[in-house]
Amino acid sequence: MADNSENNAYWAANKRIIVISLVIWFICSFGFGILLRPMLAGIKIGGTDLGFWFAQQGSILVFLVLIFTYAIKMNKLDKEHGVDE
Predict the structure, then answer these.
(1) Which InterPro entries match (predicted)?
(2) DSSP for 42-74, written as a single string
């Protein structure tokens, strides 16, 4: 059984990964899709403006990338702390 300081280090790293992922997703979905949409209106992608693309499609694609990135990073973190499968 790992000691308390190792557990704290593991969960601190886990929370850091989660917070960074949520911030990236918030920026892409709410920031680019809603708040910054007027600024992105002049940039065209796929026949529509970039802000609309982020609101409809981009945030979903970013979320999918974040899921795979989270899984890879957590597998690495699990191995580092000896809690991998």
Answers:
(1) Na_symporter_ssu
(2) TSEETTEEHHHHIIIIIHHHHHHHHHHHHHHHH
Residue pair 51/37 in contact (Cβ under 8 Å)? The answer is yes
Yes or no: say if 28 and 34 are a contact pair by the CB < 8 Å rule. Answer: no
The number of folded domains in the chain is 1
Instruction: Copy the structure tokens of residue 38.
Output: 């007027």
Q: Which amino acid is at 25?
A: W
Domain extent for 61: 19-80
Residue 62 belongs to some domain of the structure: yes
